[in-house]
Batch of 3 targets.
Target 1
Amino acid sequence: MAAEWVCVQRQQEECRRYLDQFKVLDHPLKQSTITVLESRGTRSKVTTAANGISLSSSNSAAMSAAALSLDPLNIAFDGSDPLSQFAKQQATSLGKDPLSRMVAEMENIDAVAAKPNPLGGLRRISGGKAKEPTNLLELDLIEPWAARRGAILNKYTTSEKLSIVTSFLTGGETIKPQTTMSEKVKYRLEQLDDFDEGSVRQMLDLSQQEYVVKIEQLNHELVQAWNQDQRVKALKIAIQCSKLLSDTSVIQFYPSKFVLITDILDIFGRLVYERLRTKADYVHPGTREMTSLPESFTPEMVPESAKETCQNWFYKIASIRELLPRLYVEIAILRCYSFLAQDEFGLALRRLTKMIRGIGDPLVAIYARCYLCRVGMGLTLDRTYIGENLDDILTVYHTIYNGGIRSEIARHRITLTGYIALYLPALDWILQGVAILTTDNQLDDILQRCKEKKNPALLLQSMMQSFRSDFIASRATHFVQILSSISVEGLSRGQLFRLLGSILSHTPPPTEQRVAVLTSAMKTISSLGNVEEFMQCAEMWAQYTSQHFGLKEVDAFLGNVLQQMTPNRLYEQHYHELQVIVDKIVSNAQDVHGILALDNFLPLLDLFQKESVKLEVCKNVLTSYRNATSCDNAIINDPIVTNALMHIARVLNDSVNALTGEDERRQISGLICHFIAKVDFGRDFEQQLAFYVEARSVLSNLDSALSTLIHSVNRLATSTRRIVKGQHTQKTAAFVKACTAYCFITIPSIIDVRTRMELYLQSGQVALLNVCLQHADSCFEAALNLIPEVPRMVESDGKVQSTEGFIKTFVVNFLSTLVIVPDNPTQGVLYLLRLLLEVMPRYPFETNSNMLSSIYLHVLDFLSVAAQEVYPYHIVNVISNDELYGSDPKFIAEVNEMCCTVCDKLLQHLKALLESNALRAQAQLALDLFLKIITGADLSVDKMFTLTVNLWNLAVKNRNVIEPKQLQTVVTYTEHLAQITQMESQRQCLWMLLEKMKSRI
């Protein structure tokens, strides 16, 4: 044995390394504030340090030095960190994103432009735009058409073959040169009538996708013809596109066709308008220069030549023979009336409204009215024509259901319901325009007129979609009565109630109406006779019920759903609707615990027989529960609620298997652990432990859940000790033993070895705290026996990491606990430490790793403490080895022998490092072992003194591979020990050693 270690008795202060100490006045990372003061002829600076002391300097050199001491980021951001600077910038327009900044700048321009005029209204400043709106769309009270366009194209599709009539998709036209005005007029009239002379071709058997492509080609041809100054060709394309809207051969595609064709007409109208505007140059008052018209021009600014050109366009369109293209093309260029007269829009809109009466097909007519209203809303604030269009619609509304239309529907092989749905986009837009700036009394009149019609379901559905939600909600009782009694041919009553439920869930009716609305609505919904319609309605009314009613009404609602779903296993066909109902009930509930305790809640969950659906529902329920209870201190102590959540947790746990992904497992574990943490029976610890026992039997597939249970039980045992203030009675002692036994039995069920080791150590510490010594020994022994099973490499967050760091941390924690663990009389002196030294070499350390030697150094620290007469800390009522052995010579001899053994292992490792030429690791280990020896070993023993000198010489020999200041720090520490050591022999040896050390530096 190379070492002859004899532990020395010393004060605890001697165990601590000596470091230079100084008083810190404030946090070292606190920023300094620099204030530069400038005056005539001088420039001084006041620096406020972290401790509040002000330092003044008047010379620039001092200023530069202080400035360099600041962090570069602080200098760049005026003394504040980047995140604070960015947050400060958010208060100004410069800190906003580019779009927000542009909006802010435009608002500033508008604010300057819209200065109040003493004569009333808004005064226009040069270059600025007045804030006063000029048309209905600028009021932002209506959903833009662009937002509806995509939904219409996606909804109204077809698989039937389509046809298109045109003369512009197989090549361009030959333009004949014209010399005289009469030839030009003659040629243009020939072009307009050309499609009547056999040049028009019909393309048949087009799929929907091919049809859309052809329409896009027409759009491209129109723009290309316009750019090539072929105005008549562009007009012909617009006319032929408009003629396509008279074709209803594939009627279910008509709304989408309307969207595609009107897009082309909008482009044509915009091209004509911009062309006229560019030609309408005028002389600005006070100058002789010709300038283009401003955005907000008046007809008086337009020169006569531009007005004549504008009138020619309207004359060309008036010469179109067929009504429908003449209407659509004139509507497309309706904006051009602004070049002619100030009040022409209102007259033209009312004239075109009357012209639409000549269209016989009600579907074609209502979409023509929709286009008229859509264009008109972007031109004027006048709403008279919209009301007239609605009057005309109501006048001919009965024709939708007449025999001729029904025969047409049968010929197209679609249902009346499908045909009625074609009217919704156009009717919704018109009714939305009617509702703008309309009083409630006026809307009541419209409602009265609509409900008096035969089969008013279409009108009521469109009205609920278009009118203000607060208007609908304030008359919810009246709407329920209407929807329950009207004829719904072509629509379903369930569809109407679903829409009403959607409105009321976001805008609730007045408080006094809510109960009556729910009662009447559910009575009608339950009597629909169609389970599918019932579920669609219940899906929407579930949110209204859960938001505005108590548990009694919610339970009745769930009971109604159960009654409808149970017969003939109908629930198997409506899993989606049931899932939505459960989600809305739980997520909107004001008392989530009360919802879980309802009589009909768990039976509703039992309807989900399909495993994947049931898993998703249970996960959503626990997610909603976590979201509802994460921000409060609410606890669960109701057995019914506990059992309900336990049932849901069981479903999630049983779904976990070897194929379950790590993310899925983590999500489920997080939900269940939150539930476990919320269960609290107060001072009824036995019931709390019973819950944990039941949870262990249910949640056997999730390591995280089992770990949470073990932590909870340990906390329960600790709480018990706190209540009895460490003085256990027979009953509390038995209870904490039951808690310890629970943990010891549960830990082996966990798969991860490292988690088991940590839980064994924690459970052993809790058992030791409660004076359950036998249980503590069992836990510590089980933890140590797991060390060889720890894999050397593990994957964490997609990265492979070594477990050596974990092993070292675990051993250090274990040794700190082992200081106060008394030896088991049947196992011998320091049995657990001997077991640790036995199992540690069996862990697969990496080659050339110094981790084992580092652990041995910590073992020497432990043994040094174990040899002391009084240990640095204790546990109440636990007799540690210092009291148990009383520094018995035999015990001290055992400790010294173990120190010698560990020291020899370290010396062997030093030799191995020398053979592998690892000089840096060898020098560091030599210094570390040197410090352990001078701190805990008796240097009066010749072998130890000689070993200490040799270790120092080895470290000095390799001084070029270690930190330069490290040797001096060790010398300082040795001098500190020599000054404070109580033993005279030890002091003399330290001074002798110090002389030898200084001689080698």
Note: DSSP finds 45 helices and eleven strands in the chain.
Target 2
Amino acid sequence: MAAQFLSLACMRRSESSRGGGDLSPQPHYPSMPKYPKGALSSEEEKNMEGSESTALFSVVGMTCSACAGSVEKAVKRLPGIKQAVVDVLNNRAHVMFYPSFVNTETIRETIEDVGFQATLVEDETNEKSTNVCRIQIKGMTCTSCSTTVESALQAVPGVQKAQVALATEEAEIRYDPKVVSYDKLLEAVEDSGFEAILTSTGENTSKIQLKVEGKWNSHSMRMIECSLQALPGVQEVDIEPELYKFSISYRTDSTGPRDLIKVIESTESGRFKAMFFPEAGGRESHRKEEIKQYYRSFLWSTVFTIPVFLTSMVFMYIPGLKQAMDTKVVNMLTVGELIRWILSTPVQFVIGRRFYVGSYNALRHGSANMDVLIMLGTNAAYFYSVYSVTRAATSPYFKSTDFFETSAMLISFILLGKYLEVLAKGKTSEAIAKLMELCPEAAILLTLDKEGNVIGEDEMDSRLIQKNDVIKIIPGAKVASDGYVIWGQSHVNESMITGEARPVAKRKGDTVIGGTVNENGVLHIKATRVGSESALSQIVRLVESAQMAKAPVQKFADRISKYFVPLVIILSFSTCLAWFFAGTFHGYPSSWIPASMDTFELALQFGISVMVIACPCALGLATPTAVMVGTGVGASQGVLIKGGQALESAHKVNCIVFDKTGTLTTGKPVVVNTRLLKNMLLREFYELVAAAEVNSEHPLAKAIVEYAKKFREDEENPAWPEAKDFKSITGHGVKAIVRNMELIVGNKSLMLEENIVIPVDAEEMLAETEGLAQTGVLVAVDRELVGVLAISDPLKPSAGEVISILKSMKVRSIMVTGDNWGTANSIAKEVGIDTVIAEAKPEHKAEKVKELQAAGYVVAMVGDGINDSPALVAADVGMAIGAGTDIAIEAADIVLMKSYLEDVITAIDLSRKTFSRIRLNYIWALGYNLIGIPIAAGVLFPSTRFRLPPWIAGAAMAASSVSVVCCSLLLKNYRRPKVLDNLEIRGIVVE
């Protein structure tokens, strides 16, 4: 699915400009056909929409994209076919169809009629074997927590893969729905001691949360629930009576928000009113609630801690107040000690309760996290103070020394740090929030009569749009939903989705993307993808998944986190014991001990400082926060990076393999010259060639067919002569029987293989075309050469500059193409590439990539076609041009949505900047701990008498994780290399 939305969002644009035309205020579109023009009546179309099925076929014998194209075309010609996608790499055909018009056996026979063996794959058509769900997790504090949850999820039978991200506080789980339900996954998280909230089930459903106002009782609740469950497409209804809230999961192809609201409001004679629930849940609302919680906790902690701090460290220097604080209450217990005890207790046990819960959950599962360090440190200070003041209260001679300010101030500073950390982490995912803001708030719904005339329009919330609604888009408004134009002409600015700056002409039949802006004319569109199916939602989902994926470098932090907390606890106790025994056995002068302390109290302070200054959080956040910001920045620049693995690999790239057609060139070849070697009409010649090439999906074949249409200008879709025994020869050309004549169209090597004589003048023209960086195509009829075509695929204006910039970045460029050597060398010379591999089949491209890797290069492959997919997969980093095929995009690690070649440089530069930031984060996190722990342990104390009080150590620990997040946030200021801006200024970048 990820590939399909990108294909929709980045499809090739038509070069022709379409005018505005006069618009009637009451447009009429009688049939609004969804299938082959006029084949179905509107009633038939309506009837079949509810009974959609899918089938997966194994297709044996396909060798290239032309084979896949011929199968796809044959299947699409059948009545009742909604969609057909053929994957030549995996020998599969995925077909969506309506069983009332066609069945799987007919589809299978049709594929076999084309010349390939087809088998229906039963298991995969009946039920999905894998779902991916997402769970929001509350309460994680460091990598130890995320590792605990990840291990618990991995242990659940049926879970194939689980990823837990500390930075986003989410888990993404790939599981088998036949073996385990998402309820079991939620239980596994909660058993680990954390709160779990399901945010996505991964099933083909949408979820809506509605607030229902009215006179509630148990009977009315059951009535509403039963009414909703009776509605076709509704899968699950959850009720939260205390919030008057209904959560409904449903299938978008069967029902929608308006239907659900209508059912609720019609229950019990309209006693109820339904509306969208104000807080729809999800990451943002959870983040806001978390920020509020930490803010409130810090505020209350400060209210209690400030008096503790004042009585402990300020009032003792003010004469009048000092006497008041030193007044005895019971025996040696003073007023100041009693006040500190009373005020620090709620901080320790009420406000600090979250740390007790976190440490208990961690220890219960055999791990130790940051909460354990905080609890050990604060409890040591608090309970020693309780012992000291209790002894003072029961003894007329013992003068106590308390550390209540240590525990209270520690908790306050840590809460402040967590508040600032959550605040900063919220900014790392702003890219997703900005994408979501592209959706308009309102939409104009049109009402049609049976003939298709507009009889009314109604403005409504855009969230209420359902599949097959007809929406009116006025000039200047955002397109409210993915769909296709059924009436009107206009230009649409799609730059916010695709990066394409120039407005794209739209007329009847053209697709539009939700969130784009209508520039001038009025458009009426039919909604085809709503809710989670929309292109925008799927882009958001891809970016979210990328932010979830761990970079390999994060394994370093995960390994350290297993031993970090236990090691710190050992160091803390060792420090305490070392100073205690050193003092007891006079290992240092007694003058070193502060007047208000004894040997044990000094040792205790050193031990607590070591425990609370160590920060596992900073290590855990070093990588994910930088990856989150980096992928978000990439998405805003039109570079979709599929996670940390892709980012890490891209920064090491030192060799790039470029495909030619559609990558270095525009991918829109045109016939520029024709030479006939026999006496025949040019129209007749092109009819024969077009008849053979119309069955091929190759860009050169499409260029020939488009050129042939010029001889049939009177026909919009000319019918070419029938081609029998069509055969595509990968990397060479095609063969077919047209009008009882054997036709061979292809390159020179194909003609030589077929033993066809190539005249001298044809050889000369081939040499001439190749010298001009054009492709020569030879045409033979009945094994005699009759013509030569010269086809030009213009270079992208920025290609030469991009190769030059890559050289300056010490990245080697290589071109691999299936085209002939002459054309390939000419193109390479023009752009400045030294190494060329021509006449390469798809497997040869992948082999070349592997050879380069074996030679020690970190290789990136840039391509856009099906034949590039093996190389994209084989490369360390696959980069797909956004206007390319679904399969290429699916196989790639990075998708260049704008189809701009210079975004290759942006992707590499951004990955380098991101990883330099990750390195800086690790240097800071490790350096902080390596320097801070010895200082806290008292390394400087013998020579300087400097010691780090525990509360200052706690403040430093809180500041360290905040500083790592802020360091990652600086990536938001990323600007692509200035040389690329210079390309735009000079007009090299095509818009």
Note: The chain has 36 helices and 36 strands.
Target 3
Amino acid sequence: MEIFKPSCFHLLLLLLLASILISSVLAIDPYSQALLSFKSDIIIDDSSSFSDWIVPSNSNPSQEIIACSWSGVKCDQNSTTIIGLDLSMKSLGGEISGDQFQLLTSLLDLNLSYNYFSDKFPTGIFNLTNLETLDVSRNNFSGHFPSGISNLHHLVVFDAFSNSFSGPLPAEISQIETLQVLNLAGSYFSGPIPSEFGDFQSLEFIHLAGNYLTGEIPPELGNLKSLTHMEIGYNSYQGGIPVELGNMSQLQYLDIAGANLSGPIPTQLSNLTQLESLFLFRNQLTGLIPWGFSNITTLTSLDLSDNQLTGPIPKSFSVLKNLRLLSLMYNNLNGTVPNGIAMLPQLETLLIWDNFFSGSLPSTLGSYSNLKWVDVSTNNFIGVIPPGICSRGVLFKLILFSNIFLGSLSPSLSNCTSLVRLRLEDNAFSGDIPLKFSNLPDISYVDLSRNAFSGGIPLDISQASNLQYFNVSDNPQLGGIVPQGIWSLPLLQNFSASSCNLTGFLPPFQSCKDLSVIELSSNHLSGNISTSVSNCEFLEKMDLSRNSFSGHLPEVLANLSSLAILDLSHNNFTGSIPSNFANSSALVLLNLSFNNLSGPIPPEKKFSLMGSTAFVGNPELCGPPLENPCSKRPNEIELGIRKTQKFAWVLIVCSVVVVCITVSVVGVLYFRKGSQGNWRMITFSGLPRFTAEDVLKSFYSAEAMETIPPLSASVWKAVLPTGITVSVKKIEVDAKNMKAVVEFVTLLGNMRHKNLVRLLGFCYNKNLAYVLYDNLPNGNLAAKIRMKSDWVAKYRVVIGIARGLCFLHHDFYPVIPHGDLRASNVVFDENMEPQLAEFGFKFLPNWGNRPFLAPDSRMDTGEYDTAIKEEIQMDIYNFGELILEVLTNGRLKNAGGSVHANPMVTLLREICHENDIGPSDPIREDIKVVVEVALLCTRSRPVTRPSMEDVLKLLSGLKTQTMAKGTI
């Protein structure tokens, strides 16, 4: 009799039977087992995502599916079939095949959205032939979209928004007759829209925006008779809008913005009589606005801005009684605003700025509609502000600057309690300023500059508790005084009242912690500057020039760590110049000319670098940089000093001998190391006066040098002889350019701003240079970009970068672009304050060939070279990209060219979600402004990008500003 010997096959069979037995004991049904298998295959960042996906220890006699009690799992009434699986927003990642769902053949709804799934799209999902809704949006699926989706014969909704798909759009999907919703927006699909997309039988919603689609828009899309919503903008098509789109009789929403469209707007679009929203902005559309749009009486939103449209606003628009938004800004439109526009009962937003409109605004504007936002700036309007502009009490933005408005302001503005932003600058308004700030609780921004107002600044301005920006400069007939209590406004950042014929004294600076700019030049102010100005700890610019101030220069000004610009010229200040101004870390522009100052100018290098123009007009002032030397009187004290000096000279001579010997030895050493020519050393404020040899020794010391990986390969960290740690940038320069490079680096080295890294020294020979600058302790933005941080911290980074760039572009002469603005060149000091590194370094190697920055270059006059314009515009573009990178924790990197492909509302929703900001959170409005700034900065046409001065104004007017300062 043969003895039975178990083989490997038998052992496996026994194990399988055992597992089946155990499964039956534990009552784990195959569906639940499949889901547990799926859970084990994926990456889970949040341990609580599947906290209830557990198997009970008791048996399951009814054979119900255990998973039916798990979160995200939906079963039929008997709990015998899984019909829905919602795994959205569970912080899941990794690659999936879809095979894990092969048992779930009865599945009707599958939601994998808001996760981090990557790699190829899981084709196993195409076997779930009963699916009705499939949502894989907001993941990172990539590659070409696979074939097979037409197997989902019952699919009604397919949402793949915001992934990383590439290649052509899947034409195959048009074979699904039941499909009603198709969302393939926010990826990298390329090529044309398939003409087959006109074959959908039941499609109601299509969203293809924010890809890299090209070619002409297929006229076949006009066959989509059931379509109600179409978004296909933010791509780069060729040609114009097909006239066939006018055949989509059920269409309610059409968005083809930012799509490179050209040609006229087809009059056939007037046939879309169900249309509620039409967005064609940011294209190159030409010709007239179709008068036939008046047929679309359902229209609530019409945005044709940022095109090349000409002609007037059609008078027929007066029948659009449902219109809430009319945006025609940034075109070449002309004529007058039809009176019928003022009669539209639902109108809330009227944006027609930057055109060639003329005449008066309709006198009844605002009387019959709930106007909230009016911007007619940069046109040729005349006349007065319509008296009822705020009669409904909801107006919060009134922007009228750069027109020819005249006469007095409407008194009704004083009762416009909803007003937040008022910009009337650059007009011909006259009379008293009728604003009663006690009636304007929310007002935050007021600009009345460049007009002809009189009667003084309203004295109750100190009651405007939310006021952040106030500018009334260049109103030469204004008169009056600087109101008491103005500096105590809790949020005030900018107060400008230059050339206003103001008199009296400056009020004491009792509380001014947010104040950053004071401009009061060319008035008749007098008295002393109170030492209480030391309370203005964030003051960056103070211009009191051309007044009658007297007394001594307040030494406390030198203690303001942010003060970069101080102009006290053309006054009656007396006494000497306090030497502690040389210790001011931020001060870069000091003008004390034409006063009654006396004595020697302190010998510190900072003063000599200011130039003689900063000190002229003070007859009793002497010493460099002025030409008149200080007279010497050989009194007893001076004789004693001379004896001391003789002894010092003996010591110096001895020291020189020793140094010469040392230098000779070191020189030989460096010659052996390949040194090319004699080394020289320039030190700036903050670095002891080391010799070049001291510094070079540190570079070549293995113990004192280490590479800094996040920065470029030519940057390292070195420890100098006294233990000072610095960052070092190596630059190779053509010998004939070195002199020009030295001059430029000296210019950079004397630049000080709290958001710019300090240059400490410059060591060079005839064709090699090392730039030494502060080594900051907290790394750079590139290394921290993916670290989760709160909104206030992100805002602080954005506003800090903006301030540094604004200083380079506007407040320093000559104008200096950064040239290489990116995350790795934003570093953090010990207080996590962002500072820009390597500004201007891009231009160093070839500086002598074309030094395009003339000493008198000025951004505000346009008198600067074309090359610098291009570099500055590139700085602004890169800043916009950095904003997006910061807000999305690095997800949107280098996204300036593609981000316009996403509708603003979608982009905002994503960013708010990533920053855990709910729909009712008040910070959401601040985030919206910052996102809008990013979009403005990354506009494709450089000339349409805002200046950094305008950017800073926008960013400084947010509620977050106060919160961010509270963390410093």
Note: The two ends are 91 Å apart (CA to CA).
